[in-house]
Amino acid sequence: xxxxxxADSGTLHRLWADLGDGAGFTTxxxxxxxxxxxxxxxxxxxxxxxxxxxTVTRCAVRLDGSEVLGFAYVAGRDRRHA
Length: 82
Prior knowledge:
Blueprint: H1 2-6, H2 9-19, E1 25-41, E2 48-63, E3 73-75
Antiparallel strand pairs: 1-2, 2-3
């Protein structure tokens, strides 16, 4: 999931289209955009503090013939990427 979340959105769309009808899926939770609090640490190991907010988008799908292994978020508002 981390590799897909960090991948270029255009490349993912092109590769998905290349799969054609062989890539069936069921939407478990439609794409939705929201905010999360980003935390930081002074010097990498100090006390945690709220750095700010970040926009994220999430979507949950199950590929045909697969089980649900987890959920992930994508930075930004790109619903198709999620």
